[in-house]
Design brief:
The complex is a heterodimer of chains A (118) and B (114).
Chain A (H helix, E strand, L loop, with lengths): L3 E4 L2 E4 L4 E8 L5 E7 L6 E7 L2 E5 L6 E7 L2 E7 L7 E8 L13 E2 L3 E5 L1
Parallel strand pairs in A: 2-11
Antiparallel strand pairs in A: 1-3, 3-8, 4-5, 4-9, 5-6, 7-8, 9-10, 9-11
Chain B lengths: L3 E4 L2 E5 L4 E7 L6 E7 L6 E7 L4 E4 L2 E6 L4 E6 L8 E7 L10 E2 L3 E6 L1
Parallel strand pairs in B: 2-11
Antiparallel strand pairs in B: 1-3, 3-8, 4-5, 4-9, 6-7, 7-8, 9-10, 9-11
The chains are: A mainly beta (118), B mainly beta (114).
Chain lengths: 118, 114
């Protein structure tokens, strides 16, 4: 496989369920991201992991819990979600340099996991 | 933080005609402006980008222009084809700093009519 792979592609869950989204990148990148995509809204950055360390958490509710066990895998654990959390969740990866002030912005996205919360 | 506004939200064009999408940004320090294309059922994919040291860049049928003074940039697609139908996102960031995260616009749904 190549690129960024997300599973499942579709998920329907009740508000009391616990589920997880999985992302795997085959590009040898060292940074991974979770974005939320809602209709007619900009992509919302949720979490950033660089070299397996979480470097950004954009005020995301605690019912979303990320996990990055290694540089190729990223999970988003979901617990007691609300209907307004229904959206397309996109995973992305990039190659970050280790030198300060040398990063560029290209992201490689997966196809997304469409989440519906009932 | 950076705020990127994108217009129009939807655009319908006849095959062969041109399409133009415009974006404005708020942070004058932004210096990197990529455009992403998202086809149905796929994730966004980078199609072209421009940096603040140039005013225009072309790649076959697509071109981007940048006006730093006015803080706006545009995507131009000429001779549109059905495969150009997609959602297009503009974005802005401050490249080569530690605050390089992309801020996206809300997207433009482009439909090319045969």
């Amino acid at each position: 496989e190549t690129g960024v792979t997300q599973t499942p592609r579709h998920l329907v869950m009740g508000m009391t369920n616990k589920k997880s989204l999985k992302c795997e990148q085959h590009l040898g990148h060292n940074a991974m991201y979770w974005y939320k995509q809602s209709a007619k809204k900009p992509l919302e950055l949720m979490f950033v992991y660089s070299l397996e360390e979480r470097v950004e958490n954009n005020s995301v509710p605690s019912r979303f819990s990320p996990e990055c066990p290694n540089s190729s895998h990223l999970f988003l654990h979901l617990h007691t979600l609300q209907p307004e959390d229904s959206a397309l969740y996109l995973c992305a990866s990039s190659q970050e340099t280790l030198l300060p002030n040398t990063n560029t912005g290209e992201l490689f996205f997966g196809e997304g996991s469409r989440l519906t919360v009932l | 933080g950076e705020n990127v506004e994108q217009h129009p939200s939807t655009l319908s064009v006849q095959e062969g005609d041109s399409a133009v999408i415009k974006c404005t940004y708020s942070d004058s320090a932004s210096n990197y402006f990529p455009w992403y294309k998202q086809e149905l059922g796929k994730g966004p994919q980078l199609i072209i980008d421009i940096r603040s040291n140039v005013g225009e860049k072309k790649d076959q049928r697509i071109a981007v222009t940048l006006n730093k003074t006015a803080k706006h940039f545009s995507l131009h697609i000429t001779e549109t084809q059905p495969e150009d139908s997609a959602v297009y996102f503009c974005a802005a960031s401050i490249e080569l700093t530690n605050d390089y995260k992309l801020s996206f616009g809300a997207g433009t749904t482009v439909t090319v009519r045969a």
